[in-house]
Amino acid sequence: MTNAKAFAALADPTRREVFERLSRRPSAVGDLASDMPVSRPAVSQHLKVLKEAGLVTDRADGTRRVYQIDPRGLGQIRAWLDQFWDVALEAFKAEVERQADEQNDKP
Amino acid sequence: MTNAKAFAALADPTRREVFERLSRRPSAVGDLASDMPVSRPAVSQHLKVLKEAGLVTDRADGTRRVYQIDPRGLGQIRAWLDQFWDVALEAFKAEVERQADEQNDKP
DNA sequence: CAAAGACGTTAGCCAAGACTTACGGTAAGT
DNA sequence: ACTTACCGTAAGTCTTGGCTAACGTCTTTG
A67: closest CA among A83, A85, A87, A50? Predict the structure, then answer.
């Protein structure tokens, strides 16, 4: 279950913010940190976590490092969630009917 | 963005384990804790977090409390992820082509 | 070759949170 | 009514992890 890293990565709000920005436009570390409330090293550390989770990819461009979304990590989470989607809806439906029956028992 | 709680909730391995068990079968707190490496209060605290994240629902059954999967929290995460899915695949395709061009520049 | 720009890494600090133990509260059985 | 079963909560401990400041590395440019 390597999706553990992906969930842990997206659990942090700052990391989700970085991820959302990269989804709009591939960017370098400094560009991301410039208009964010945390320091550049902090962003760099977050990117490291996102990279190890398979959520982003990095490429060298001169002295800069451009980061970009990686669909692999995203796919793992989606697959894990879809595993529960059907049974969740089914359980929800059953619960609604169960509560309805509870009402009919005491008219 | 209420999906923050859902992500934070599923970030913990023990909480994911509880969630997976509930997806297989609605269960009471004691039943869950009996065959898990943590104490019953720990499971109870985890269930509280999952409930506040909209991932589970609880119902009273005598002295027991049966927990069950809730599709609401699941849906929020899925919606958030799907927001990036298309752009992620597009970015990945562009990156592959970019690397191919890089090869052609140095034959 | 030296200086500057852009990053990654380390050390250290501090708050968040995952556990356990102990306690109180409610419902069912005798 | 008393006991038993099941559960949530409070207090306390200890680890995890996010942040900053300082330093080291690599590439480009003059």
Answer: A50
Angle in degrees, CA A13, B20, A96, rounded to 5: 95
In this complex, the nucleotide whose C1' atom is nearest to the CA atom of residue A28 is: C6
Q: How far is B54 from chain A (nearest CA, A)?
A: 12
Parallel, antiparallel, or unpaired: how do β-strands B27-28 and B56-61 relate?
Answer: unpaired
Say what the pTM is.
Answer: 0.90
Does A79 contact chain B (CB < 8 Å)? Answer: no
For B89, nearest residue in chain A (alpha carbons)? A71
β-pairing, B64-69 vs A64-69, is unpaired
Residue whose tokens read 């959520």: A55
Question: For residue A66, which residues of chain B lie inside 8 Å, CB to CB?
Answer: none
Partners of residue A61 in chain B, C-beta under 8 Å: none
Percent of chain B with pLDDT over 70: 93
> Per the CB < 8 Å rule, is A23 touching B87?
yes
Structure tokens given for B61: 């059954």
**Three-class secondary structure of residue A101 per DSSP:** helix
The span from the CA of A14 to the CA of A40, in Å, is 12
Distance in angstroms (rounded) separating the CA atoms of residues A27 and A40 = 13
Cα gap B106→B90, rounded to integer Å: 26
For residue A107, what pLDDT is reported?
38
At B102 the pLDDT is 55
